[in-house]
Amino acid sequence: MYADFPQQADLSEQALxxxxxxxxxxxxxxxxxxxxxxxxxxxxxxxxxxxxVLFRSHFVLFNALYRLRDQLWQTQQAFLSIDPLCIRxxxxxxxxxxxxxxDPLRDYYLDEAxxxxxxxxxxxxxxxxxxxxxxxxxxxxxxxxxFELQDPITPQRIKQRYRQLVxxxxxxxxxxxxxxxxxxxAMEILQRYYC
Length: 195
Prior knowledge:
By secondary structure, the protein is mainly α.
């Protein structure tokens, strides 16, 4: 798997190489481990059990992934779905995953000041906030309600329903941009739980 790994390439190109080998995608941690195993010089080679090292590795990877997503979208090669549980290349479909809308996560990861200025205490606060939100389960219920679905549900059913909603509400077909943003956000949430 690593014989052709582009050692001299930037992290975006290295991640693209690995994701092309995995059509079903990879969880973030597996992608990090694969990059480390391939001896990517862009990631700290320190123990990921240190929370600050883990944060910095995560940040550097997501910065590269968002840059890669922008590049792939602009050249109409693919859409890169970025989620910690499943990072996956998907076919480019004009208009269906528009990058023109405001994406606060993209803005965060492309601002390298966050990497430089985040301390160990900041990481601890971020982790605490994350687990509080994850345990609430409210976002999952809201996304299922918007899709008019109920558990138990399969990833295939979610994708089918997403396509139906896009065809009904896409602005190119007379739908609302705000409604499309809600549908896309709900899809991202459901992918986190069901991908």
